[in-house]
Design brief:
Number of domains: 3
CATH topology of the largest domain: Elastase, domain 1
Distance between the termini: 19 Å
Number of helices: 10
Helix content: 25-40%
Number of strands: 14
Structural class: alpha+beta
CATH class of the largest domain: Alpha Beta
Radius of gyration: 22 Å
Largest sheet: 5 strands, mixed
């Protein structure tokens, strides 16, 4: 199960020229709290691979710097202080992973991987500089908390997104920059043209409740990932988009720290969201559990429910049906691997065929993986 976890053909000398003992003098400090040798990429948004020392130290305040392990150049430095306190609607008071430069703190992560734009009532429906101006990024000069500089929904969306993005990285899906538009409109969307280099999502409300929820945000970022494989221009590929985004949203929510493990209901952190007809997606007990029953269903969300149920069955198993339990991560990895075998206008049967090809080639016909995939 390699893709997308392993990268090849990277030309890089992994023996540091600059020893860690030189780091304090480079940073002009007496000592450092910790240093770690890493191969990293995209520190300067050039998708370049470098051997670096990642260093945590104190200089006026707590900082993290990345130092080139061959040249000794300081590539990037960020503020690692605990972020400002902010109120959220669903999750209460939280410390945000915001960015402070001088006396100004903005709703963007210190490394620039997540940027929130507060659009008030009207979220943009396309990606243009005019629709996503930096002037829409909330800021405060308060030294320790956010109050009314933006909305509680915006603070919540920023908080959940800044947690979700590193969890995607943990399964090998890296986003360059995630641009998040917060507004009061109904719905959450991933804008067409998004991808893993630059994702653009908008998050609003439903039933007057916030959609800045872990699984909803992870769902929308799932679309940005899916755009690397298929389009969103017909019922078939829209079905795959929505089903895979639900699966990714469910898995990512399950690994959020201190979040009570896995559940199978989309948007359930806000019951009024989960019960809304526009959501109403339960991977464990779906309205439709067989694709043959929904092949002519006109709406992609409902048409994708059987694929979400396949994920539940393959990961959790079902002894009465002879389905071995593969676990949530391996079942997800099988699907992600299968995406490499489909085309941009594929439908559920195409992914089914690709999935069976993957499990047969990689594990064999007598394996638990093959039996789980086929029987589920």
């Amino acid at each position: 199960m390699m893709a997308p976890h392993i990268l090849t053909e990277i030309s890089l000398n992994h023996n540091p020229t600059v020893p860690s003992t030189n780091i304090p003098s480079i940073l002009d400090v007496q000592d450092v709290e910790s240093s770690k040798l890493l191969i990293t990429h995209n520190l300067t948004n050039q998708c370049e691979y470098r051997l670096v020392w990642q260093v945590v130290y104190h200089k006026d305040y707590s900082k993290i710097s990345w130092v080139d392990a061959h040249s000794g150049a300081i590539i990037r430095t960020i503020d690692s202080r605990a972020g400002h306190n902010a109120p959220t609607i669903t999750y209460g008071q939280q410390f945000l992973n915001d960015r402070t430069v001088g006396a100004t703190t903005t709703l963007e992560t210190p490394d620039g991987s997540v940027i929130l734009y507060d659009f008030d009532n009207n979220c943009p429906d396309n990606i243009t500089p005019a629709n996503w101006p930096l002037t829409a990024v909330p800021f405060t000069n308060n030294t320790d908390e956010w109050t009314n500089e933006s909305t509680q929904g915006a603070y919540q969306t920023f908080w959940t997104t800044s947690q979700v993005v590193p969890l995607y990285e943990a399964i090998g899906i890296d986003f360059g920059t995630v641009n998040v538009g917060s507004c009061d409109e109904e719905g959450a969307f991933c804008l067409n043209g998004s991808n893993t280099t630059a994702a653009f999502i908008t998050v609003g409300t439903l039933n007057n409740r916030p959609l800045g929820l872990f699984d909803v945000v992870a769902h929308e970022l799932g679309h940005a990932f899916m755009f690397e494989f298929i389009q969103y221009n017909n019922l078939g590929n829209r079905t795959l988009h929505e089903a895979m985004a639900d699966i990714l949203g469910t898995y990512i929510e399950s690994i959020v720290p201190n979040n009570n493990g896995i559940d199978w209901v989309m948007g359930d952190d806000e019951p009024q969201v989960a019960s809304h007809p526009g959501i109403d997606r339960n991977l464990q007990n779906p309205r439709f559990n067989c694709f043959q029953n929904v092949i002519n269903h006109p709406i992609q969300h409902g048409r994708g429910l059987p694929l979400g149920h396949w994920y539940f069955l393959a990961s959790q198993g079902d002894a009465t049906r002879g389905i071995p339990a593969l676990g949530t991560l391996q079942s997800l990895n099988i699907l992600i691997e299968a995406l490499n075998l489909i085309e941009e206008n594929s439908d559920v049967p195409d992914l089914m065929e690709a999935t069976m090809t993957i499990v047969e080639e990689q594990f064999g016909r007598c394996s638990n993986q093959f039996l789980a995939a086929a029987r589920a």
